[in-house]
Amino acid sequence: MSPIRLREGFKDQILYVIPRPILEGLKANPLLHQLLPTDIGWYPRARYHYCERKDGAEEHILILCMEGEGWFEINGRRRPVHQHEALIIPRREPHIYGTYEHNPWSIHWVHFTGASSDYFAYLLPPDVYTLAIAPETIKTVTALFEECYRSFLGSFVLQQMISTAQTLHHLLGTLFFNNRAFSPMLRTSQFHSIRETLEYLRQNLDRRLALDDMAAHAHLSKSHFLRLFKEQTGYSPIDYFINLKMQHACMLLSLTHQTIREISLAVGYEDQYYFSRIFKKVVGVSPSQYRETPETNHLKYYL
Fold this sequence. Notes:
CATH class of the largest domain: Mainly Beta
CATH architecture of the largest domain: Sandwich
Mean pLDDT: 88
CATH topology of the largest domain: Jelly Rolls
Structural class: alpha+beta
Radius of gyration: 24 Å
Oligomer: single chain
Strand content: 15-25%
Strand order of the largest sheet: 1-2-9-4-7-10
Number of domains: 2
Distance between the termini: 51 Å
């Protein structure tokens, strides 16, 4: 390890920190109570970069390695951080991290807190702190970091801070849920993805597809297909398909003047009374009651 250690001070770096008294005032806003970025930066070619926090940080830390490589140490174990990997360090977790002198990293980083921040920080399995990022996701999260920098400059203004927080929420959501290198539903290299099956179901809402039909479309045995589908969505294939149909039925009830009979046929049920029973079981009210409910109450139903 190089005897030279720098916490910051890199050429062309970006570093924005919200003064803590201002931060305390911002936390009272309900939109910032959920997720609040507190510090953010860009350290390009950060040779000799090194940071040690014996008691951890009060916020969760996200570091995105764009080029070069670095390392981190938690619980006495040192591990690498490669190009196009993200490092998540939970709050109050003692840690050390830095870069290699021969191939210094360039990193985007952000500290964040809030009621929903723990959810993102602990999405990784225990004792796992890094995740790979797919090339197309790299482009998206880079653009989102750059958007954060632009709005963070005036982050002491409430509207600016809300905008930055919402952008960060999008960034974290993209990293964990729209990243085929990590997100189970989007992976293709390590195991079979069901994305094509989900599109197949969306295009066939007017049909009564059985498990055999779905498994055949995925070119998998029923047992293998059932296991993968539940693993990647949290639903059985049939339950997912029924919920998808009811979600579409809700839209038709809200936005069209089609009769309940017509809507029943549109989602694959010839017997409108059977459709109504399924609809009430899933949504909680009958189709006619749903149609009569004020529009704002329709938001109670989610797939």
